[in-house]
Design a protein that fits this description.
By secondary structure, this protein is α/β, with parallel strands linked by helices. Helix content is 30%, strand content 17%.
């Protein structure tokens, strides 16, 4: 005997006609930023710079698009201070949310990182969850921070920054970090459109970062 579809409340025997009254779950929002925690972390991580008699110089701040618009900041990676130096160099109103390696998200430290708006990424493979989180940040008009080299001192740029910028319809802002004597220097270049294709945009970003990571004269 063939199976008979159980009728629904409206008397229809077709399973396809059964309507699920439950609403679809809402799409999760981007990681939130607690401004007080964000500024606290940026200020505390600047103390080692001051203690060593150094200071931060910023060039090219005029290239940073206005706050409230989606932006991917792509920087070269030379030290553990890089995320905080770039965050400090950005104009007020821009809260940069970084992909941070998942190993950092241990109790207490991980809580502080999350409160500052950053989120974990598994660097051992393609972390689709981190990509989705990145796109939610951009959709909300936020600022995403990425190191295309992946690790400090890496010589090859990965295409993830260009891919996320293209999917999130956000310009790429190259940020060169360098050290010269008692100066830490952050140089922002002109935004790069993500529409030229992943390989070509990544190549353009590499050229820009190579130039911007070269120390320049003092800012006055």
């Amino acid at each position: 005997m063939s199976e008979v579809a159980r009728p629904d409340l409206n008397g229809s025997g077709s399973p396809e006609s059964v309507h699920d009254p439950r609403p679809a779950p809402p799409e999760p929002g981007p990681p939130s930023v607690i401004p007080a925690v964000y500024r606290f972390v940026v200020n505390v991580t600047y103390l080692p710079v001051l203690a060593s008699g150094m200071h931060l110089e910023v060039h090219g701040r005029e290239h940073v698009p206005v706050a409230g618009t989606p932006l991917v900041v792509a920087a070269n990676h030379v030290s553990s201070l890089d995320p905080f130096l770039v965050a400090r160099a950005l104009p007020h109103g821009r809260f940069m949310q970084f992909m941070a390696k998942k190993e950092l998200f241990v109790p207490l430290i991980g809580d502080v990182i999350r409160a500052g708006g950053s989120f974990p990424v598994d660097r051992s493979g393609n972390d689709l969850g981190a990509v989705r989180t990145s796109l939610r940040i951009l959709k909300a008009g936020g600022t995403l921070g990425i190191f295309p080299q992946g690790t400090r001192g890496g010589s090859e740029l990965h295409g993830g920054a260009a891919l996320i910028a293209a999917k999130g319809r956000a310009p790429l802002l190259p940020a060169g970090i360098s050290r010269d004597g008692k100066r830490w220097i952050v140089r922002f270049g002109e935004p790069i459109s993500p529409r030229g294709g992943i390989k070509s945009v990544t190549a353009e970003l590499g050229v820009a970062l190579s130039a911007l990571a070269t120390p320049v004269g003092r800012a006055y």
